[in-house]
Amino acid sequence: MATVPAVREAVVDKLREMSRAGGVVMDGRDIGTKVLPSAQVKLFLHAQTEVSAERRWREELGRGRDVSLDQVRAEIEERDRRDREREATPLVKAEDAILIDTSALTADQLLERALEIVKARS
Length: 122
Hints:
Blueprint: H1 5-19, H2 31-35, E1 43-46, H3 49-62, H4 69-85, E2 98-101, H5 107-121
Parallel strand pairs: 1-2
Helix pairs in contact: 3-4
């Protein structure tokens, strides 16, 4: 989301407007704490930094980007630090969010787990 406060607020307003009819799935670093704090289901996905870095590195190589694993790891660490320390809506897990450690999960396994949680809460 934008780092300029006025732009952030405009985006938050738009996202809230989009969700009013319900049945919406949103992904973002402050959706459950800032954008939709009353959401019916909140999932907080986390993976070990090494795992995230390797996944992103493989994606970047697949896109033709010539980048080292160390560089990708540093970029992820910097992004996470910046998001945790920002003044407006820092990156934190909402109290009522369910933590899913994705480190050892495939995308299909994550989807299966997320659907189980949503069905149990519906």
